[in-house]
Amino acid sequence: MAGINRAAYAAGTALVRLAGADPQDPRTTWTREKFSPPPFSTHEAQAGNPLHLVLAIGCVIWLLAARRREAPATLVLVCAAVVGFTAFCWLVRWQPWHVRLHLPFFVMLAPSVGRAGELLLGSARTTGLNVVLLMIAFSFAVSNEVRPLLSASQSLFSAPRDEFYHAPVQMRALASALLRLPCREIGLDVTGPFEIYPLLHWLNVGLGPIKTVYLSSDPRFSGWYRKNPPNPCAVIYNDCVEEPGRAAHCRELGIPAVYGSVWLVTGFDAAWTPAQGWAVRQPAATPFYAERGGPVLELPADLRTENAAQLALLAGVTPDKWVTDTGFRIPIARRDWSALSVRLSGRIPAWSRTLPQTIRLQCGEGPARSQVIEEAGPFQLASTLQCSPGNVVVLDVTPEKFFRPVDLGMSADSRRLSFMLEEVVISPGAHRPQR
Asked: Per DSSP, what are the bridge partners of residue 425?
């Protein structure tokens, strides 16, 4: 499959260059992306349909060459699909996630392929071919990287919907903060990839009073802005640290609240136009984040898994209080402290054969600390963790295998690490110096 991809890529780039164009031209290739042959993937946005494509091309060529009178409607569908796909490629820049947008063209070609197969092979053989193609497609649906229909850990039918968004936990905290604001129009000043889908879901955009608007200086949108003048009372920024020079832009409206890689500014008095940008009358003086009662934890805190409400704050802990090899996470509202004191109590079952095991703790992007559990039974560990900057930090607790030279054979052990969690006590550690 990799060889076919490379051959198709070489042929495609040769045709583009023959036409006097550059395959990497940003006018035809998505910003920050490079036109390249895609690797094999079961991700719903990148999984291809190579067999279906080859079959469709062959059937289309045969139908057009045969010019059979009994299939005029089929030819109309073929022409519509070809014209539609050509228009799609003409209007939309190439990006590696376009595969999911090809589905309508395959659906339009399906009757044509079915008709060609019936004329060439007969009904019985065509039905058999359809079964084979369906089985191939079903294997991708079952093992879908994002939302698998069947999985040993979690599937589309066994896990809550929110778990399939795969957004950083800080994004959920950001949504919680926005829901606590009286603001009903949120501006998006974002570049590159951004977790917009989970944010829209958690804010109930389109079904509730909150609406979002992209803030762009692109003159192509000026007509839309004239008809729909934006007046956001909160603005979300991303890539404020990653992109050189963008940090000052992200602070233009005042002091931000930092939610991982995303910044939120609200409480300002300013007006925005696409031509002039922001005219700031009063910048935001303080950051805003979710208060007590949201998914962001306030310190000090004593979380016991026997309490259902407190168990809900421990993202990753199962309803029956178990922690697997994926660990668990706790989003925490950061005040004037720079470190956390953590005390964790739990129990490792006597039947566990993955002892000794390590429990790793980390606050945001700060240095991780690990402690080794040697024996089954109850355990308690305590640690002080330095935290990375941000108004919301995430405490990660993850079990890991602990290897010694004599235990190297454990590397082939497929059993999942696990322990039962009983209590997590978290309090502020060292305080940040006042400026």
From this structure: 302, 343
- Those residues whose C-beta lies under 8 Å from the C-beta of residue 65, and which sit 6 or more positions away, are none
Query: What pTM was computed for the model?
Result: 0.62
Other Cβ atoms less than 10 A from the Cβ of 220: the count is 8
Q: In this predicted model, what pLDDT tens digit does every residue of 384-426 receive, in sequence order?
A: 999 887 777 889 998 887 654 444 444 444 445 678 899 999 9
Name the residue among 170, 216, 163, 171 with its Cα closest to residue 195.
171
First to last CA, the chain: 59
**In angstroms, rounded to a whole number, what is the distance separating the alpha carbons of residues 254 and 268?**
7
Q: Are 244 and 216 in contact (CB under 8 A)?
A: no
pLDDT tens, 212-239?
999 998 888 889 999 999 999 999 999 8
Residues 63 and 75: beta-carbon distance below 8 Å? yes
Tell me if residue 330 falls in helix, strand or coil: strand
**75-102 pLDDT per residue, tens:** 788 888 889 888 998 888 888 888 888 8
**Contact (Cβ atoms closer than 8 angstroms) between residue 210 and residue 178:** yes
Sign of the CA dihedral running 343, 349, 350, 355: negative
Please answer whether residues 109 and 101 qualify as being in contact, where contact means their C-beta atoms are separated by less than 8 angstroms.
Answer: no
Tokens in use for 23? 């395959």
Residues 139, 406: Cα–Cα separation, whole Å: 40
CA quadruple 13, 17, 23, 25: dihedral, nearest 10: 180
Domain 301-428 has CATH 2.60.120: yes
